[in-house]
């Protein structure tokens, strides 16, 4: 093996942190370096990334409405190309469910020439609300993620040319049992049908066109929001506005140092209210090798 590639789309940062942790753990076990490819910003999504049979790709995306974010899916299909490259797919989700996102991610990777060999669905704080998965991933989640990466490393080490240090490796089956890891085939089946966001009244919440608004009394025009929008929808010369497509990722809301941006759209707020009413119980992560 040559290199471990940590590849992610992560507007608000949780997915990137999880992917990097798993990649670093693999790197420690296998003794090969890690390089990160952050596909979050438009300027990073210009060139195709090609990987060979000696590379390992750890690829991560958040779950949006139970799927790979629909504006990122075509980018994933267009940008990442493997050639028998072993791949670990990671989705993060905010305490409701990852529904079909992991199955979809693994399917795209396979169609693009990768060989998916492990999958994980990690619970991370929901970017919409402080009440949904606060403090996740916690220590227990991260220990389970490490055990999953160890199980994947054990499989890769078993297949590699012996560069990995066998003394550091438990038997793949042993590690998998410790982390309650399920067979990868189970991750290939979508766990739920297409998800329709609902409001507190139980009716579909239609907020496709919702965009954040800016409190001009708080905004000091620092431009942070323009620099973090994955859709390039906030003009640098007028960062108090949102002119292009908004995927509701919350990057600008969360990263604004003045807390000047927020959503007022009633349907969006009703959906958040529904999630807060129904999904505060701690969800479990899921691991597959
Ligand atoms: C538009 C949108 C839709 C989301 N849909 C879901 C969902 O269906 N299920 C869920 O559990 N979490 C959902 N989440 C929460 C995110 O998956 C979660 O917060 C994720 O970790 C964010 O990743 P990031 O910090 O890398 O941007 C959604 C978040 C956004 C912005
Ligand atoms: S990050 Fe906040 S304070 Fe800075 S320009 Fe954007 S809205 Fe204004
Ligand atoms: S404007 Fe929309 S897409 Fe851009 S950072 Fe803000 S929430 Fe995300």
Describe this structure in words.
By secondary structure, the protein is an alpha/beta fold. It has two domains: 3-195 and 283-288, Flavodoxin domain (Rossmann fold, 3-Layer(aba) Sandwich), CATH 3.40.50.360; 213-264, 2-Layer Sandwich (Alpha-Beta Plaits). Helix content is 30%, strand content 17%. It contains eight helices and ten strands. It has helices spanning 14-30, 73-79, 101-111, 139-159, 172-178, 224-228, 251-255, 266-278; strands spanning 3-8, 34-38, 49-50, 55-62, 80-81, 85-93, 114-123, 213-214, 261-262, 286-288. Strands 2-1-4-6-7-10 form a six-stranded mixed beta sheet, with helices on both faces. It has a two-stranded parallel sheet with strand order 3-5. Helix 4 packs antiparallel against helix 5. The longest helix has 21 residues, at 139-159. The two termini are 19 Å apart. The mean pLDDT is 93. Bound molecules: flavin mononucleotide and iron/sulfur cluster (SF4) (2 copies). One iron/sulfur cluster binds at residues 214, 219-225, 239-240, 256, 258, 260-261.
What does the oligomeric state look like here? single chain
CATH architecture of the largest domain: 3-Layer(aba) Sandwich
CATH class bucket of the largest domain? Alpha Beta
Ends: how far apart? 19 Å
Fourth-level CATH superfamily of the largest domain: Flavodoxin domain
Ions, cofactors and other ligands present here are:
flavin mononucleotide, iron/sulfur cluster
Protein traits:
8 helices; alpha/beta; 10 strands; 289 residues; binds flavin mononucleotide; Alpha-Beta Plaits; single chain; Rossmann fold; 30% helix; globular
């Amino acid at each position: 093996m040559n290199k471990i590639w940590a590849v992610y789309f992560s507007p608000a940062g949780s997915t990137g942190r999880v992917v990097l942790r798993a990649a670093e753990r693999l790197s420690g076990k296998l003794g090969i370096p890690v390089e990160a490819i952050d596909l979050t910003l438009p300027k990073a999504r210009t060139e195709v990334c090609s990987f060979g049979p000696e590379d390992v790709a750890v690829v991560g995306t958040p779950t949006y409405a139970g799927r790979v974010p629909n504006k990122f899916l075509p980018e994933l299909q267009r940008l990442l190309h493997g050639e028998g490259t072993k791949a670990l797919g990671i989705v993060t989700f905010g305490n409701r469910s990852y529904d079909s996102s992991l199955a979809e991610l693994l399917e795209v990777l396979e169609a693009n020439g990768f060989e998916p060999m492990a999958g994980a669905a990690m619970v991370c704080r929901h970017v919409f609300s402080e009440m949904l998965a606060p403090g996740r991933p916690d220590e227990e989640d991260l220990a389970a993620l490490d055990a999953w990466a160890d199980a994947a490393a054990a499989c890769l080490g078993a297949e590699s040319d012996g560069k990995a240090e066998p003394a550091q490796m438990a038997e793949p089956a042993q590690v998998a049992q410790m982390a309650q890891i399920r067979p990868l085939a189970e991750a290939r089946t979508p766990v739920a049908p297409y998800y329709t966001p609902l409001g507190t009244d139980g009716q579909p919440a239609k907020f496709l066109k919702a965009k954040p608004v800016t409190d001009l009394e708080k905004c000091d025009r620092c431009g942070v929001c323009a620099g973090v929008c994955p859709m390039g929808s906030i003009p640098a010369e007028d960062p108090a506005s949102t002119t292009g497509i908004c995927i509701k990722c919350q990057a600008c809301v969360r990263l604004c140092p003045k807390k000047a941006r927020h959503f007022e759209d009633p349907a969006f707020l009703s959906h958040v209210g529904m999630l807060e009413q129904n999904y505060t119980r701690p969800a479990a992560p899921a691991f597959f090798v």
